[in-house]
Amino acid sequence: MPAVTLRGSEVWWARLALADIALVRTLSPVERARLDALARPADRARSLLAAALVRAVAGRLLDLPPGDVPVERTCPDCGRPHGRPRLDLPGAPQLSVSHSGLLVVVAAHDGPVGVDVQRIADVPAGTDAGAWVRDEAVVKAGLVAGAAQVLGLSPPLPGYASALALPRAYAGGRVAQHDAAALLTP
């Protein structure tokens, strides 16, 4: 499979209402087991939607069916399947995923990328939600603050803060935000 070259960064937004049980068929057995282990229905819905959206976005970029996308989530520290999603293909784009409240977001970029979304009402009192998501995005990208360019994103619902972190060398590049409904609708 040829390497994919993005002409910028892609950010895909999904609302929790898209968390249809039919999406389970696109997940791996490991991802299904993670869902089964979650006690709260809202947590299961967010996790289902996040895993399915990662696969749908990567499948679109790689021209693969979502169920065939080789997503790897093994944590480098403990070996459990809860690490950041990586595509197990040479030259594949890097991915980042986040969810909060009624939103899930996935970002793809040719290099390090981190995305975070947070429902503002859930941020601890006295904490700046914008600073919170900027810091989280930098950590998720695996960058240090001085090496990162952090951009504010426009979540599709009010009451949320979101940020995208990219390498500083990418300054001024294109960031396209998309509604994921078309990717997730059968």
UniProtKB/TrEMBL annotation:
Protein name, as recorded: 4'-phosphopantetheinyl transferase
GO biological process: lysine biosynthetic process via aminoadipic acid
Record-level GO cellular component terms: cytosol
Domain of life: Bacteria
InterPro entries found in the cross-reference section: 4-PPantetheinyl_Trfase_dom_sf, P-Pant_transferase_sf
GO molecular function term, any single one: magnesium ion binding
Keywords for the protein's UniProt record, in alphabetical order: Transferase
